[in-house]
Amino acid sequence: MGSPPSPYGPEGKRFGLGLYVGEPTGLTFKGYLASRLAIDGVGAWSFVRDAVTLVFDVTYEILDIPIQSQSVTVPFYVGAGTKIGINTGPRDRTEFTIRVPLGVAVQWENAPVEVFFEVAPGVDLSPETEFDISGGIGARFYF
What we know:
The protein is mostly beta strands and 143 residues long. Helix content is 0%, strand content 71%. Strands 1, 2, 3, 4, 5, 6, 7, 8 and 9 form a nine-stranded antiparallel β-sheet that branches.
């Protein structure tokens, strides 16, 4: 039986960097502020909106399932945040979205790695008000 899961991510490390594939696709980061509370984000390219996209979320791990036989922990999280899209194509406009990310991660107790999946429904507030959904899969290496 392994040690109890760390309250701060893989191997007790608090900051991770990695790749995010989905809508948008790019680089991701996550930094734990306290046990279960983190700030994460994505700097990416949106192929749907033809825009450079920046995502900033505050997330909270609401449920943490330890799987002792495999030395992994599976945290489920929910959050709130924003997405800013800066169109570089013919539309040349900035979009602002409020979003609610919902996700699940797999964190190894003996490796500084996290793999995750999330979906984030939201509302575009600018330039028009409309429903938005984004999400993807990713992996982070923790330092």
